[in-house]
Automatic annotation (TrEMBL):
<protein>
    <submittedName>
        <fullName>Unannotated protein</fullName>
    </submittedName>
</protein>
<dbReference type="InterPro" id="IPR010982">
    <property type="entry name" value="Lambda_DNA-bd_dom_sf"/>
</dbReference>
<feature type="compositionally biased region" description="Polar residues">
    <location>
        <begin position="95"/>
        <end position="108"/>
    </location>
</feature>
<dbReference type="InterPro" id="IPR001387">
    <property type="entry name" value="Cro/C1-type_HTH"/>
</dbReference>
<dbReference type="GO" id="GO:0003677">
    <property type="term" value="F:DNA binding"/>
</dbReference>
<dbReference type="Pfam" id="PF13560">
    <property type="entry name" value="HTH_31"/>
</dbReference>
<feature type="region of interest" description="Disordered">
    <location>
        <begin position="84"/>
        <end position="108"/>
    </location>
</feature>
<feature type="domain" description="HTH cro/C1-type">
    <location>
        <begin position="14"/>
        <end position="67"/>
    </location>
</feature>
Length: 108
């Protein structure tokens, strides 16, 4: 699989997770603690900072390794088997109740 295919696959996986939750990019970004433009870059396949990867995994209720390849997580110095807390619920109307702590630095 080419690097371009891998990038497209990660972006598609993130979009699918967000859409499965019925969340807009705005709602997901707010819950994750990043800007909408950062979320758009992630959905285009950009590699996040470690704190952002953890927050994304927490929001979607999965480990970062379910989204990003193990070699990316090793580069971010994240454990590939760390467990995240339960994901927030997206209520009707697009509001969220979130326990996610926003990362200190939301830039990629």
């Amino acid at each position: 699989m080419s690097e371009t295919d891998q990038i497209e696959r990660v972006g598609a996986r993130l979009r699918a997770l967000r859409m499965d939750r019925g969340a807009t990019q705005e709602v997901a970004a707010r819950a994750i603690g990043c800007s909408v433009s950062t979320l758009r870059r992630l959905e285009a396949g950009a590699v996040p900072q470690a704190k952002t990867a953890k927050a994304v995994g927490s929001f979607y209720g999965c480990r970062p390794s379910a989204i990003w390849a193990e070699d990316v997580l090793v580069d971010l110095q994240l454990e590939t088997d760390d467990k995240n807390t339960p994901a927030p619920l997206v209520a009707a109307g697009g509001t969220t109740e979130s326990h996610v702590t926003a990362p200190d630095d939301t830039q990629l």
